[in-house]
Amino acid sequence: MERLVSIKNASGLHARPAGMFVKKAAEFKATVEVIAKGKTVNAKSIMGIMSLGLAKGDELTISAKGEDEETAVNTLVELIESGFGE
């Protein structure tokens, strides 16, 4: 399952929201990946997420495969759309 989402928070996916994202992704059994800027990274890897350098307005695709893939994708999209409380 995949969904496209845009970064909403002004400072982009810097250390704190990236950490929140990775921590949330790690709660799921599914394999979760983020696809952006022509790269695919493991959503459970802080270094992978940070390496994308995502800023406000950038689009990314969240992709998951596994038993809880739908919940994983929807939860992570909601987290991004919430702006990480910033």
Automatic annotation (TrEMBL):
Domain (HPr) ranges: 1-86
InterPro entries for the chain: HPr, HPr-like, HPr-like_sf, PTS_HPr_Ser_P_site
Recorded superkingdom: Bacteria
Gene3D superfamilies membership: HPr-like
Pfam family, one: PTS-HPr
Cellular compartment(s): Cytoplasm
Keywords, ordered alphabetically: Cytoplasm, Phosphotransferase system
Protein name per its UniProtKB record: HPr family phosphocarrier protein
The organism of origin for this protein: Romboutsia faecis
